[in-house]
Amino acid sequence: MSTLHAVVRPARGPAHGLVVLLHGVGSNERSLQALAHGLDPRLEVVLPRAPLAFGADAFGWFSVQFGAQGPVIEPAQAEASRLLLIDYVRALQAQHGVDAAHTLVAGFSQGGIMSASVALTAPQVARRFAILSGRILPEIAPYIPADIATRGVRGLILHGEQDSKLPFALATAAAARLQALGVEHALHGYPADHTLTAAMQADFNAWTTRALLSGH
Predict the structure, then answer these.
(1) Per the CB 3.0–4.6 Å rule, which of 70, 117, 185, 211 could disulfide with 155?
(2) Distance between the two ends of the chain, CA-based, in angstroms?
(3) 116-147 b/e with 16+ CB inside 10 Å = b?
(4) What are phi and psi of 209, to 5 degrees?
(5) pLDDT reading at 10 higher than 70
(6) For residue 145, what is the DSSP state?
């Protein structure tokens, strides 16, 4: 496994679930610590640093340019990060004795994009994902299993309705894509720009508890 630098909010006692929180482009592993500390203490929460450096204390999962036609990514970097994260999550699961049904990969912006990329292409690794102000990359389509609808995957999409970086239409498109795939999901919009609001964090916390701990 290629290791990633990470900060950890350890579970209180044995971990009943694993949450991997992925930051957005130009940020770092500390940016979602407030979100991590709001989660149920029975969950092991890991916040890895993305592998690509874009500046001082600024990292990302892939390069992206924003133009008139929307975001344009470097697909080879996104694919390398997808494979890296799949291996990384597997190693964390082995360390903590957690299975795919009790593993959530979630993130903000580009981190949310990568979360969907992991869960939709590798449901044997993570069956829960949350896209916070992100989207689903069309580039992952060839890697989504044909039987994804039967794999027990559940997703959450939270997005600001006034998002000026990734428009809300990308959230509705993501929900439509999940509907077409037969993947259980929920979509919630908020009166916000490209940010995480207190309401979004509260809804994420509640959904995560239900998604990972309903049997505990």
Answers:
(1) 185
(2) 30
(3) bbbbbbbbebbbbbbbbbbbbbeebeeebeee
(4) -60, -45
(5) yes
(6) -
CATH for the stretch 6-213: 3.40.50.1820
Token duo for residue 165: 């970086």
pLDDT in tens, 153-199: 999 999 999 999 999 999 999 999 999 999 999 999 999 999 999 99
- Cβ neighbors of 167 (< 8 A, separation 6 or more) are none
Residue 1 predicted with pLDDT over 50: no
| Nearest-10 Cα torsion for 133, 85, 35, 170 | 10
Residue 8, token pair as written in the block: 């950890």
Calculate the CA 164 to chain-centre distance. Answer: 20
Query: Which amino acid belongs to residue 44?
Result: E
Residues in a beta bridge with 27: 59
Give 94-128 pLDDT, tens digit per residue: 999 999 999 999 999 999 999 999 999 999 999 99
Closest C-alpha to 207, from 177, 186, 189, 184: 186
